[in-house]
Amino acid sequence: MADKREIMEKMWRYRTNIPVQAVRFIVLALKFAKLIKKSSH
Amino acid sequence: MAKVVVVGAGFAGHYASLVLADALLGKGNHELTVISRVPKFTYIPSLVWVGVGRMKAEETQFELKPVYDKLGAKFVHGVAKEVHPDDQYVVVELPNGSTQQVNYDYLLIATGPYLNFEATPGLGPDEGYTQSICTPPHATKAAAAYLELVSRMEKGDKVKIVVGTGHGTATCQGAAFEYISNLHNDLVDRGLRDRAELLWLSNEPNLGDFGIDGLEFRYKNQIFTASEVVEFLFEKYGIKWQVESHVKQVDENRIYTININGEENEIEYDFAMLIPQFKAQPIKWFDKEGNDITEKMTNPAGFVKVDAVYGKPYDELDGPDWPRTYQNPIYKNIFAAGIAFAPPGPLSRPRQAPDGTPIAPAPPRTGYTSELSGRAAALNIVDMVEGREPSHSASMAETPGLCVASLKNDLLTGGAVTIAIYPVARNRAVYGEYGRDLDNCLAEIGLAGAWFKWMLHHAFLYKLQAKPGWKLIP
Question: Which ipTM score applies to this complex?
Answer without folding.
Answer: 0.94
